[in-house]
Amino acid sequence: MHILIVEDEHLIAENLYDFLESCGHQCDFAATLAAARLRLAASSFDALVLDRNLPDGDGSTLVENLRSA
How far apart are CA 5 and CA 13, in angstroms? Predict the structure, then answer.
């Protein structure tokens, strides 16, 4: 499974990344909504682990945009 982790706290993102990779998943990381949008445009993902409180906005906005697309 290809998973995008969107988290601005480096330690949390690193722990999620390490755990999910140890379970056999392929992971990518973005620290902002803007970076997440770029990653989503460049690749397809099976799942999204998303922080709601990001430096450039609320993560739920990204989910709403993805659902409407």
Answer: 7
| pLDDT (tens digit per residue) in 2-41 | 999 999 999 999 999 999 999 999 999 999 999 999 999 9
Neighbours of 7 (CB within 10 A): 23
Nearest to 18 by CA among 9, 27, 8, 10: 27
Q: Tell me the three state secondary structure of residue 68.
A: helix
Q: Which of 67, 66, 56, 51 is nearest to 15 (CA)?
A: 51
Cβ atoms < 10 Å from Cβ of 8: 17
**Are the C-beta atoms of 6 and 51 separated by less than 8 Å?**
yes
